[in-house]
Amino acid sequence: MNILKYKEYEGTAEIDTDRQVCRGKILFINDLVTYEASTPADLQIEFQNAVDDYLETCRDLGREAQKPLKGQFNVRISPELHKQATLKSIRDNTSLNDVMKKALESFLYSSHEVNQNLK
């Protein structure tokens, strides 16, 4: 799936073969904001219009527009992995949050292939 970007927002770019249109929705907010166009080039324009309209509508309603993602989420892991991560934070004299951040960055941005098979 392709991702459109504008201001602080991302949105989907899909083709609806049944209706013969390009369509999408703004990602990472609870409000449902959709857009569609007849061509991919026009879809980017409609996405930008949808973001601008969303921001303007929120202003008109006197409420704050939702920001895409807060940088906070819950992860469920085994108690043993939790323990090992906590011990790592103690050994490194850092926070558990920092250990998890570094682990996630390593997973996402490492140029080396990571073997994800667990025994």
TrEMBL record:
Top-level taxon in the UniProt lineage: Bacteria
Listed SUPFAM superfamilies: Ribbon-helix-helix, TTHA1013/TTHA0281-like
GO BP annotation list: regulation of DNA-templated transcription
Pfam family, one: HicB
Name assigned to this protein: HicB
Native species: Methylocucumis oryzae
